[in-house]
Design brief:
Elements lengths: L1 H35 L6 H38 L1 H7 L5 H31 L11 H9 L3 H32 L6 H30 L14 H6 L1 H9 L2 H27 L5
């Protein structure tokens, strides 16, 4: 049943997001071509290049906003509307509904990130290597010089982004679920609860980080204040920067976010299972 719910949710969101993603790639290609067609340094071509870059940025923002709105709106409809009422009349576990929504949100978030990176690459890449905005050989040299600690640090950074994304999605779902306890103004209550959750979680995070920093006064943040180049940050993990990534602070932060995710999931499940209030 989880597979069916996930397939249904992915199909419903695809009707809106797939055309937007295709349009983003098309706009990116057109913007890139407009730059390549420049034949002189005149003001007209400069204007066209500027407009191409402007349109690309606007399309990227639109893709991001559309993805967020669709993800939020789908969960709201499935849990706080007439469609949600019909969904909860089916012999389906509440956990399956939450997980299917969560997995769908993760997939679209991942695809949005991939399309954004692809679009940026298309915009900055130049067939003439000497004229590239970004020196790709520089990044190649950095990657070839990465140590085992450097690879581990990158993995830790990816893990941090992943867990933070999980927590953000769960906070949005928790806010919507709390707002479903009210009969009116649910969108307003959803935004209010989300802001409240954001404030509370960040306050506890800062408090815990301060406590950990006092327990381990080795200066885990000191490396941030040093004059370190980008190359040093990537290639010298075992000296100046490694303490930041490999510190107890990072581990405590992950554990804290996982605890927050668990608590928010329990709240969502409790509300949808026992206190469902759909109009």
């Amino acid at each position: 049943m989880l597979g069916r719910l996930f397939k249904y949710e992915l199909k419903a969101t695809s009707k809106v997001l797939v055309p937007i993603y295709i349009a983003f790639i098309a706009i990116t290609i057109i913007s890139r071509v407009s730059i390549d067609l420049q034949v002189d340094e005149g003001s007209l071509w400069s204007f066209i290049n500027g407009m191409g870059l402007f349109v690309f940025i606007i399309s990227a923002i639109t893709m991001f906003v559309a993805t967020a709105i669709v993800i939020i709106w789908r969960f709201y409809r499935n849990t706080s509307s007439d469609e949600g009422y019909l969904l909860f009349t089916l012999p389906v576990k509440v956990d399956y509904i939450i997980i299917s929504e969560f997995l769908c949100a993760l997939i679209w978030g991942f695809l949005m990130s991939v399309f954004t990176v692809l679009g940026i690459f298309l915009m900055i890449f130049n067939r003439n290597v000497d004229d590239n905005i970004i020196n790709f050989s520089y990044f190649g040299n950095i990657l070839s010089s990465l140590t085992a600690d450097g690879i581990k640090a990158i993995f830790y950074l990816f893990l941090d982004i992943l867990i933070s994304t999980f927590q953000e999605i769960m906070s949005i779902y928790c806010a919507i679920s709390l707002a479903s306890l009210f009969n009116k103004h649910r969108l307003i209550f959803s935004a209010t609860f989300y802001i409240g959750l954001l404030i509370v979680v960040n306050a506890f995070a800062i408090l815990i980080m301060n406590i950990v920093e006092k327990i381990f006064p080795s200066g885990v943040y000191n490396a941030y204040s040093e004059d370190i180049s980008f190359s040093d940050i990537v290639t010298s993990w075992n000296t100046d920067v490694a303490p930041i990534i490999n510190s107890v602070v990072s581990i405590v932060d992950w554990v804290f976010l996982l605890v927050v995710i668990s608590i928010e999931y329990i709240i969502i499940r409790k509300i949808l299972s026992k206190n469902l209030n759909i109009c």
